[in-house]
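sry for the spam today, last one i promise. struct tokens for design, 686 residues
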């Protein structure tokens, strides 16, 4: 239901009676000055003198008439009947998640909601009604895992059905607050800032005023549009506004929905001359120029992906030719880096409102911006651009020290039986690496808010950095991360596939390429196990491939400087698997199986053509173990085609073989393309 009513009210003889119906959230529970800060009060200020806005909220009220505290049996309901509103916004359902209510009476929720709406209409046949998708309930609520979490989302679906069945407006109060746990001290009730967000959301819904024509920052002049797939363009405008978008010779028209959203879809395009995009509403216009069609990749992770080209080996050679490369950059740099310092209050406030990234725009690669861009992404993009002969757009969103859980969306985390526990008191939670927790505590020490946000917090980087760009079509993702999760190998084995699924859902592409860098070499004890877990992802996650980096490590520095080979190894993978360059070798030797024969263990490799040692010396890094699981170095190792043959005098009955199983490894097996083999451990078949 769309109501652009404000101009009409200038001529009204009486105030419009506006009822805010609800529970404790509407009432303003927990506010020190509820009469000033509750959302109906703020809404009244926004709507102005033409409205009489009343707060009909009652703490603990249920929508269900058989619930433990039915709204229709409260004194505030009798007062509502006397008021007979012209406009009504209903926000009920939170208390129906109580185990006394939803499990027993769920089948009556929709009929009871429709009955309430019918009653309002019986009082005033012209009443305008909106129902609300509920404000969030966060994971530290005492009943969250025991049922509230699941019942909450079932009730959300029921509310949407009510809106459709009753032909009333639907206001989403979940979306603007779901990523703001800092505003919910008790996991249920928003503070005054949260109430203001509710008021603004309701105001926009009932007036249709969403601030006019706007688009996400990711769209802009100089952008690269992904070739070969429809280009979806999204934005907001005032409800009901006619929007016309012209891209090159294509024109699309639409009307902004009641929630202000609009989108148009252009046909798939191929590279050609630069394009201009014009987006118009009735009285506003946005123009973007110099738009190219090509290949777009998101480059993400932690500090090794963020590591600057200018600080890497061989930078001068690349930078001398940077302007000649057909590459555009979209660099999402954080406002503050997670150094060992305490952040000031200004930065802390910005973090809470997701204002974490410096505003940016698409830029044509040149010597200056390339030096300040990701080294791995730059080398990856350069090889793609040269090989494909098309423009390449690189979006970099990488944060030093970031754990993987910061990049996973909240709903996925909440509904995963293991990962949900990472959300609980994350700064005192052993699921999160102690270094990560310690650094976060240091950064936010000046904050007085116990729920202060931090980029390392679970879900934060998804909410602040990934969600805002997820509407932008991309080809795929390259990922370099894991250093801040290497303390718990088994947990990462769960987290990484969840991350991939989370991002594929965000982009609406179940087969989106997701290629990653295996952790390098350094003297950190858990890293061999971690590298092997990463190796196994390739066989368990579709369209997911790994670039080995252990040969480019450093025994003491977590940031190896030789980034060019790593970026180009990722590019090889993309060219082979995503662009059908079947004449190239995508990866180094990949172990397939090991089998004992005639006293020797034979290890067969894929991509093993031309296997040899990288330094011309004897093969290093192979070990055998018997049932005791104690490994000994192989002492009789040879290469025959794509097979390694080996044995050990200390292991008479080998059952396992492993390779490169040192934190900092000097193992030296490569194939004919000089691509290294991965760390691995496998069982030996007879």
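last one done:
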């Amino acid at each position: 239901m769309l109501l652009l009513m404000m101009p009409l009210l200038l001529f009204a003889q009486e105030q419009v009676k506006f009822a805010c119906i609800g529970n404790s959230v509407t009432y303003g529970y927990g506010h020190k000055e509820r009469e000033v800060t509750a959302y109906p009060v703020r809404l009244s200020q926004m709507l102005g003198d033409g409205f009489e806005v009343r707060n009909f909220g009652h703490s603990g009220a249920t929508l269900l008439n058989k619930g433990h505290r039915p709204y229709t049996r409260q004194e505030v309901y009798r007062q509502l009947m006397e008021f007979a509103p012209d406009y009504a916004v209903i926000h009920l359902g939170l208390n129906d998640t109580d185990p006394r209510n939803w499990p027993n009476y769920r089948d009556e929720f929709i009929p009871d909601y429709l009955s309430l709406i019918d009653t309002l209409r019986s009082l005033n046949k012209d009443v305008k009604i909106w129902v609300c998708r509920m404000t969030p309930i966060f994971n530290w609520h005492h009943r969250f895992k025991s049922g509230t979490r699941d019942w909450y989302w079932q009730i959300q679906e029921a509310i949407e059905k009510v809106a459709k069945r009753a032909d009333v407006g639907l206001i989403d109060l979940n979306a603007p607050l779901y990523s703001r746990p800092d505003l919910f001290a008790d996991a249920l009730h928003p503070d005054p800032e949260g109430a203001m967000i509710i008021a603004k959301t309701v105001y926009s819904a009932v007036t249709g005023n969403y601030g006019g024509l706007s688009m996400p920052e990711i769209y802009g002049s100089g952008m690269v549009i992904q070739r070969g797939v429809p280009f979806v363009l999204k934005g907001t405008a005032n409800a009901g506004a006619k929007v016309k978008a012209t891209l090159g010779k294509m024109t699309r028209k639409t009307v902004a929905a009641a929630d202000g959203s609009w989108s148009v879809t252009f046909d798939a395009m191929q590279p050609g001359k630069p394009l201009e995009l014009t987006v118009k509403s009735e009285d506003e216009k946005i123009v973007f120029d110099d738009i190219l069609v090509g290949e777009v990749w998101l480059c993400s992770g932690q500090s090794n992906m963020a590591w600057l080209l200018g600080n890497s080996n061989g930078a001068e050679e690349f930078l001398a030719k940077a302007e000649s490369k057909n590459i555009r950059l979209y660099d999402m740099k954080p406002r503050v880096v997670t150094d060992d310092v305490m952040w000031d209050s200004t930065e802390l406030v910005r973090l809470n409102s997701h204002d974490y990234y410096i505003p940016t725009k698409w830029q044509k690669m040149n010597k200056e911006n390339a030096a300040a861009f990701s080294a791995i992404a730059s080398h990856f993009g350069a090889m793609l651009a040269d090989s494909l002969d098309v423009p390449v757009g690189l979006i970099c969103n990488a944060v030093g020290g970031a754990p993987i859980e910061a990049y996973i969306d909240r709903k996925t985390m909440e509904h995963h039986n293991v990962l949900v526990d990472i959300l609980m008191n994350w700064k005192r939670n052993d699921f999160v690496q102690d270094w990560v927790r310690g650094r976060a505590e240091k950064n936010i020490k000046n904050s007085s808010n116990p729920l202060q946000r931090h980029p390392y917090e679970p879900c934060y980087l998804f909410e602040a950095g990934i969600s805002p760009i997820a509407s932008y079509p991309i080809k795929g993702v390259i990922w370099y991360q894991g250093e801040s999760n290497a303390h718990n190998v088994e947990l990462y084995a769960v987290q990484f596939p969840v991350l991939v699924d989370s991002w594929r859902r965000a982009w609406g592409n179940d087969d989106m390429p997701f290629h990653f860098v295996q952790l390098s070499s350094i003297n950190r004890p858990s890293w061999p196990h971690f590298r092997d877990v990463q190796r196994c992802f390739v066989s368990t996650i579709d369209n997911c491939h790994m670039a080995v980096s252990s040969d480019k490590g450093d025994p003491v520095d977590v940031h190896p400087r030789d980034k060019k080979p790593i970026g180009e190894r990722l590019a090889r993978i993309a060219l082979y698997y995503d662009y059908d360059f079947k004449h190239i070798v995508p990866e180094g030797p990949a172990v397939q199986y090991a089998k004992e024969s005639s006293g020797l263990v034979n290890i067969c490799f894929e991509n093993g053509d031309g296997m040899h040692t990288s330094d011309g010396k004897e093969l290093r890094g192979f070990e055998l173990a018997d049932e005791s699981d104690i490994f000994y170095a192989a002492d009789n190792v040879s290469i025959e085609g794509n097979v390694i043959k080996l044995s050990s005098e200390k292991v008479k009955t080998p059952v396992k073989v492993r390779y490169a199983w040192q934190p900092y490894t000097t193992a030296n097996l490569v194939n004919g393309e000089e691509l290294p083999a991965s760390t691995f451990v496998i069982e030996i078949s007879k």
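The mean pLDDT is 96. ok im logging off now
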